[in-house]
Amino acid sequence: MKLIRIINLIIIISFFAFPSRAQAPYEKLTYNYPYKDGIPFSRYKDRRQKIVEFMSPKSFAIVLSPDYYTQIKEFYRQNIFNSNLFYFTGLPEQEAVLLLIPGNYKYNGIKCNDMIFLEDQSKKDIIWNGLKVNLYEAEGMYGISKALYLSRLDEIIDELMLLRDTLFLADFPLTQTEGVLPSENPDIKLEIINKLKAKYPRLIVKLGIPGLKSMREVKDEDEIKLIKRAVEISVSGFREAMKAAKPGIKEYELKAIAEYSFNRLGAECPGYPSVVNGGKNAVFIHGAYSRDLIPDGSLVIMDCGARFNGYTADITRTFPINGEFSKEQKKIYNIVLEAQDSAFSACTKENSFMTPHVKALSVIQRGLLELGIISNANDARDYFTHATSHYLGIDVHDPGTFGNLKPGNVITVEPGIYIPEGSPCDSKWWNICIRIEDDVLITQGEPVILTKDLPRKPGDIEDLIGK
Ligand code: GLY
Ligand code: MN
Ligand code: MN
User: Fold this and answer.
1) 3-class SS at 303?
2) pLDDT band at 27 (very low <50, low <70, confident <90, very high)
3) Would residue 325 count as lying in a domain?
4) Which listed residue, of 20, 21, 218, 233, carries a Cα 20 to 30 Å from 167's Cα?
5) Do 166 and 99 belong to one domain?
């Protein structure tokens, strides 16, 4: 008995003698980088170095993580709202600011062409949200010249301002995503600019970083490898979903099947909100509630892409939910298919970015005229309301110059025809909505259709769905 009492006493004393023991394990945790199969860190450093060489020595650039100023936490994804910080660092976390500093700026005797400012993470935040990269790791692992806490940012900007007159503010990918993504509010940029202008009246603020769009539009080998894997995963997901098509199925069921396959094959998440729109819903290009039953006899448009180590695919297939295209559906489908083939043939280097679109539009004009759906070629734009191509990469709508096509560009080719109910044409065409979207790599020679393994001809689609 006495021994038990002594043991108890020892336990009680040791509990009070080492009160911090319960927290100790958290202090030993190490950072776990999520994109282990992603771009090598040295490549990010090369990107920073390359862009700094483009900039005048009297300038510097600020690259913000998406919501550092906006406070908008919902829908956060480093690489969908503003991917420049991810492009330059590979850093997945929120609350970070990168400075790109040309010339010979030194901090404590260390030459810094790049500096990162990170959150000083509280223990509570670590416990709830996981460990973010610390200053030491940001320098060692990410190879950034100097990492400091965010609280030091203003002081460093003050210091830089002594010798610099121009600030480049990495722009958000506004043009393509406006209205689709909730945090893309142009006022945010204005607010940042106004604040800086008030403090430094002589500062010239320019949106965008010179040379960055040209750099981002040409993908390197590692980026192409990641896009190819994202495509491969997406194609598998599409196959699974298309095989499950049957009358009575709901939009969200097909979406779930595709996304389940993406995740199972190692995708982090969809690269953008998946669109699965059946019947009348298919007229909405990006509208994506996906709550409805897909009526028998109707078509479904699936526009989904998996994201793999930060890079996304972007694929659309349109298929009959019962496995068989009607005569009218097939006629419209074949116009879109021909438009896409014609656009593919224009996906060669030195063609203007718009050439595939011009080709696709001309096939759609001719097709709709022949079927009597329009009587004036200009009216084709009432049924084909979007562009044929955009760049693809980290963002589903990746930045680029929209100049001439270049080897290393990855673009989508996605013509479509949408005929909503009530359109001024024979009612037999109503509710036929079709988009076919493939991802294309521009090369020195022929274009490479990265998504070619996913059936896109009506017969092959019917075979895949089966009956
Ligand atoms: N999935 C978006 C787009 O095709 O542009
Ligand atoms: Mn697209
Ligand atoms: Mn798409």
Assistant:
1) strand
2) confident
3) yes
4) 218
5) yes
Q: Among 71-80, 225-234, 309-318, where is mean pLDDT lowest?
A: 71-80
Q: What is the CATH number of the domain that holds 359?
A: 3.90.230.10
Q: Flag whether 129 is in a domain.
A: yes
**pTM of the full structure:** 0.89
How many A from CA of 108 to the centre of ligand 3?
48
Residue with tokens 């007229």: 283
Region 153-169: mean pLDDT is 91
Q: Does residue 343 form part of some domain?
A: yes
What are the tens digits of pLDDT across the range 338-397? 999 999 999 999 999 999 999 999 999 999 999 999 999 999 999 999 999 999 999 888
End residue of a domain, out of 178, 199, 216: 216
Q: How far is CA 329 from CA 217, 287, 433, in A?
A: 36, 21, 8
Burial class (CB in 10 A: 0-12, 13-18, 19+), 214: middle
Q: Is 396 in the pocket of ligand 1 (CB under 6 A)?
A: yes
CB 120 within 8 A of CB 151: yes
Q: Give me the domain span that covers residue 48.
A: 30-216
Asked, for residue 22, whether it belongs to a domain, the answer is no
**Residues 197, 280 share a domain:** no
